[in-house]
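DM from R.C. (forwarded with permission)

"hey, sorry to bug you on a friday — could you get me a structure for this? deadline for the figure draft is monday and I only need the backbone to look sensible"
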Amino acid sequence: MICLGIESTAHTFGAGIVRQEGSSVEILANVKDTYTSEKAGIVPKEAAEHHINCFDRIIRQALSDAKIRVSDIDLISFSQGPGLGPCLRIGAFVARSLACALEKPIIGVNHCIAHLEIGRLATNASDPVLMYASGANTQIIAFEGGKYRIFGETLDMGIGNMIDTFARHMGIGFPGGPKIYQLSLGGRKYIKLPYAVKGMDVSFSGILTNIQQKYDSKKYSAEDLCYSLQETIFAMLVEVSERAMAHCGKSELVLGGGVACNKRLQEMAGIMCAERHAKAYFPPPDLLVDNGAMIAWLGLLEHLSGVRMKISETGIRPYERTDDIDAKWHSEKKKYFIKE
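My reply, with the result:
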């Protein structure tokens, strides 16, 4: 079975094509284009216009990379939520149009769970805790009681949005994560920042205000501030991830989301897991960031477990939570492997 997955929750429009045959899974194509802005973060209207302008090219390129015709597709899946409404609508419209034109089934999937499932597939992890760190989302997720439960999350803003906001404050543009990482490599002195872990949850707004004030004071170098910011906020994520692993009795940690591409975060997560004799898994960067392949894979999992959707059920869900979804496919315990 071949599925075309469409990702459009925020600044990325992606098209992924995944083929499943028995226990073998092959990612045939994973193409994306990302909206960027040097002056601001994500402007939803502009991001949606970006998606309108590039979706045809991206899907055609995915079909070309996969060496298939559009008629070879058996299933269409798309990010139904959570995400930015204007961006989600473009992906949903494209998916519905293709499904109707091709007379193929359609499934809307949860973006957050897609990150987890592609991570499990790519790393061969069995039953991990997911540290999901992206622009708008910061969640610690694990499977329990038929659903993916959120054991910890941000109480205010996503970690990526906080990093991007500070980068914008410094005048280094969007996306800010890679630029702050590069600056952090030159940092030598740790500058104390608020450490906001509250039970299993985290908070970033106070840290953002504090570091912006420190930057404006001109008493500290940008390199030291970026180094200190990463050390503080990543330690928070690792702490709550370790608590979730202990609470759930799990011995695997998978990272997901664009922020999880950060090498320092991976290093810190790896140290924690090694100390508790657990395994830390890091999917390749193209599967960590928002992408269409993860949407295609979750669409296949849901379809194979018997999930079906009518067109009338494919409206966007901008505020959908991870634990709103019954993970019917998970209980089957079937193991899939990426074909080399």
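R.C.: lifesaver. The chain has two domains: 2-116+287-338, 126-285.
me: no worries. Residues 222-248 form the longest helix (27 residues).
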